[in-house]
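Notes from the 1:1 (GR / supervisor)

We went over the backlog. Supervisor wanted to see one worked example end to end before approving the batch request, so GR pasted a single chain during the call. The sequence is below; no edits were made to it. Supervisor asked that the structure be written out right there so they could see what the output format looks like.
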Amino acid sequence: MRIVLFACAESAAVDQASQRLSIFHVLEEIFSPVFPAAYPQFTMIVMASREETEPSAFDLNLRITLSGH
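Structure output shown during the call:
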């Protein structure tokens, strides 16, 4: 499995006619004075590619870490 795209944004939508993905208001950084933080308009977009020999279902483990800013 190979991750082709990973993005965080305020929202995303798929056009039903063209099946095109639109990503709105991409988040490059998130600033929060406290943790855990709540972001009600937070969307993660992940596009993955797999070989035919790889399983079609998989587990995703996501770890979010603080940077040194």
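Supervisor's comment: Residues 14 and 21 are 4 Å apart (CA to CA).
Batch request approved.
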